[in-house]
Amino acid sequence: MTAIAFAVFFILLVLGAPVWAAMLVSGGVIAVLDIGLPTQMVVSQLYIATDSWLLLAVPYFLFAGNLMTDLGLAGRLFRFIENLLGHLRGGLPATGVVTCAIFGALSGSSTATVVAVGSMLLPYMIRAGYKQHDALGIIAVSGTLGQMIPPSIYMILFASLVQMDVSKLFLAGIIPGLVVTVLLVATAVALNIFGQHELRPRASAAEIRRSFMEALPALIMPFVVLGGIYAGIFTPTEAAAVAVVYVLAASAIFERKAFTLRRIFKSAEGAVVTSTIIFIILGGATVFANALTFADVPQAFTRFMTSLPVNTHITMGLILLIFVLLGTVLDPVPILYITIPIVFPVVIALGYSPTHFAILTIACMMVAQVTPPVGMSLFALSGVFNVPIGAVMRGALPYLATLVLALLLLWAVPGISTVFE
């Protein structure tokens, strides 16, 4: 019956059914027809999936990220980074990477990051002589940094699945996030340093100082949010709400012209839509994952993987390969909710650190966001800027290779992820 349920799942995906519906139907097949659970229990899982204090942080962080863009603080951040790096060869692509890294630390959302930074960076790069697909590619891949650098939506989801302290994951993601950022900056500079691109004049010390002071309200926000968490002042969920209040207050003081109800409602609408999509997927994925658990699939998978006559690192490599392959056909959220309940017991049985595995999982989800043909960041840029998805894919490939290299580095050097344990 489990095999039939998986067949139904993939058939529905091929037919174009929404991912959450495919998971809900497949999980329902196992729960009702195989296990014999009442349909009321299946339906109740849709509610239970999102009835979590920790998951309440998701819409708040999304709202804060949208407010940063719509009320103007993100523009201040971009201008400061551009004044620092824009005059260098490869400086504009490097500006895109660094801006995505910082903005990701403010919003926790890859989609918000690629749209916000893309809207600011793309016109600059095209005017400077960069090809459109190259500019879109660096934005698509760099936008995923928001899932490694805290606060991260995927870290919140992972922590909710395995009952980990999300603040520990936030702390663990700082060094890996910086490592991936440096690798992407190096790739951006290496690919563009010899190009015949127009260089902007070097900003004066006064301009850099002025842009820094203008960007300071945005730069302070991660310290307020994360500092409050680690000082024990508020929980991660409360920190997300504080982020919203902080952005509203800073925008009201420093961006009075942009601070309008229309823009605030626009930000709220975007956060509601994205949160709804995530939570609907969570509902379907929870039904599917719970049905598999009742059917003893995780336990059987654990017994099988731990009995393989191979090195434990090879077993972990197979798990990571499964993540990457699933990323070619599924979004990260359903991948997390389908696989983590199954593979997490295997990882613990192999003796891996849960924190290290969490960081490796997030790195795989970053790859999944820009892996053709269904990479979420690719489609976000394609839709917003009305360009063919193939053009975004072509520009993203060199940076996608860097993400894979970063994944291998994080796997080979566990201390990068566990330095704060």
List the helices and strands and how they pair.
Blueprint (H helix, E strand, L loop, with lengths): L1 H13 L4 H17 L3 H10 L8 H14 L2 H13 L5 H17 L2 H18 L4 H11 L10 H10 L3 H7 L1 H19 L12 H26 L5 H19 L6 H34 L2 H11 L4 H15 L5 H19 L3 H16 L6 H10 L3 H24 L2 H4 L3
Helix pairs in contact: 1-2, 2-14, 3-14, 4-6, 4-13, 4-14, 5-6, 5-12, 6-7, 6-8, 6-11, 7-8, 7-19, 8-19, 8-20, 9-17, 11-20, 12-13, 14-17, 15-17, 16-17, 16-18, 17-18, 18-20, 19-20
Find the structural class using helix and strand composition.
mainly alpha
Give the overall form.
globular
Strand content range: under 5%
Number-wise, the strands total: 0
How many individual domains? 1
Task: Spell the H/E element sequence.
Answer: HHHHHHHHHHHHHHHHHHHHH
**What is the first-to-last residue Cα distance?**
42 Å
Mean pLDDT rating:
84
Determine Rg (CA atoms, Å): 22 Å
The profile of the biggest β sheet is: none
Low-confidence stretches: none
Number of DSSP helices? 21
Helix content: over 70%
Function: Part of the tripartite ATP-independent periplasmic (TRAP) transport system.
Keywords: Cell inner membrane, Cell membrane, Membrane, Transmembrane, Transmembrane helix, Transport
Transmembrane segments: 45-63, 84-106, 112-130, 137-157, 169-194, 215-233, 239-259, 271-292, 312-330, 374-392, 399-420
Family: Belongs to the TRAP transporter large permease family.
